[in-house]
Design a protein that fits this description.
The chain is α/β, with parallel strands linked by helices and about 325 residues long. The protein has two domains: about 5-145, Met-10+ protein-like domains (GMP Synthetase, Chain A, domain 3); about 160-325, Rossmann fold (3-Layer(aba) Sandwich), CATH 3.40.50. The chain has helices at about 5-15, 100-110, 165-170, 190-195, 210-220, 235, 260-265, 280-295; strands at about 20, 25-30, 30-40, 55-60, 70, 80-85, 90-95, 115-125, 130-135, 140-145, 150, 180, 200-205, 225-230, 245-250, 265-280, 300-310, 315-325. The strands form four sheets. Strands 14-13-12-15-16-18-17 form a seven-stranded mixed sheet, with helices on both faces. A hairpin with a 2-residue loop joins strand 2 and strand 3. The longest helix is centred in the C-terminal third of the chain and has 15 residues, at about 280-295. The relative contact order is 0.09.
Length: about 325
């Protein structure tokens, strides 16, 4: 397959999922993926840059690797919107497509070994989605994010690669030697990125399954000396911990309810990354201001970000807040 045709096929796949292709990247709100696209007519295997977020080749360069997507020239599928978590493809919406045809298309255009169909939003105490198994058997996988390996079963613990760019944004702001607290840490993606510069990262997670994977992932990424995991409710765990330079609260549904705890655990001048759902930054800032008046703590918003959508009217947002005590 020639390079231009391969690039067009990759463009079509991403545009179906709402991305724009610009300067070798697939971009949409909250997500930015570096692409490596290699036609066997122009490139050899030695030319492939495996540091890219997504790598696409034609059948002439099929490396039989889990992190390389192979396009076969004779196939042309109408693919549904789906997310790749390691070797597990998660279909967000079939949009009227036949299940069997969707599975066939995904298997032909990715290295998926398992295909799940999302049947319900995140729900319950542990924010786990509902899924239907369409193909394969093993729902546990290892996903690579910014050089870290994330072991997870999406049917048991929440994880989305769609927010990897936002996690990188936050981690890039960590200063050398900081002590970082990650509330609602899940299987550890925030903690591992922050650990690249932090002196210490404490990750707290309530879901027993997610915490099991968090502890496994600490060992998997050889971060036992930097990242410490606590399994339990943040209300029970955090008051007994030290103070932190940075507190991350990636629970947009309820993070604001724990803002008092975050402020209490944050050093003067420290930063809290508060996530929430709102229609606008003005609305979110009003909520923050109301909560801070109750806590009686001074603050300054130093940055803000939109990092996904909950609905056509509500966005997933982050306010980076400096605490003044």
């Amino acid at each position: 397959m020639d390079q231009e045709k391969l690039e067009e096929k990759v463009r079509e796949v991403f545009e179906r999922e709402g991305f724009r292709i610009k300067d070798g990247k697939a971009v949409k709100p909250g997500v930015e993926l570096e692409l490596g696209i290699y036609s066997s007519e122009e490139f050899d295997r030695k030319d492939i840059d495996f540091s890219k977020d997504r790598i696409f080749v034609d059948e002439g360069l099929d490396l039989k690797r889990d992190d390389v997507y192979v396009f076969e020239e004779e196939k042309n599928f109408d693919l549904p919107s789906f997310e790749m978590i390691g070797a597990v493809a998660v279909i967000n919406d079939l949009a009227g497509r036949d299940e069997a045809e969707a599975v066939e298309g995904i298997l032909a255009n990715s290295n998926a070994e398992t295909v799940l169909l999302k049947t319900g939003r995140l729900s319950g105490e542990y924010r786990v989605g509902s899924y239907k198994l369409l193909h394969g058997e093993n729902t546990e996988t290892i996903h690579k994010e910014h050089g870290n390996r994330i072991k997870v079963d999406p049917t048991k613990a929440y994880y989305s690669e769609r927010f990897s760019t936002e996690r990188k944004r936050v981690a890039d702001n960590v200063e050398q030697g900081e002590n970082v607290l990650v509330m609602f840490a899940g299987v550890g993606p925030f903690a591992f990125l922050c650990a690249e510069k932090a002196g210490k990262v404490v990750a707290v997670e309530k879901n027993p399954e997610a915490c099991k994977y968090l502890k496994e992932n600490i060992k998997l990424n050889k971060m036992q000396e930097i990242v410490e995991a606590f399994c339990g409710d943040v209300r029970d765990v955090v008051p007994d911990l030290e103070s932190f330079d940075r507190v991350i609260m990636p629970l947009p549904e309820k993070a604001v309810d724990f803002l008092d705890l975050a402020v209490e655990s944050c050093k003067p001048g420290g930063i809290i990354h508060l996530y929430g759902f709102a229609e606008s930054f003005d609305d979110f800032e009003e909520i923050l201001d109301s909560e801070m008046k109750e806590i009686s703590t001074g603050y300054e918003i130093v940055d803000k970000a939109v990092c996904g959508d909950k609905s056509p009217s509500e966005s997933r947002m982050c306010l980076d807040v400096r605490i003044e005590k």
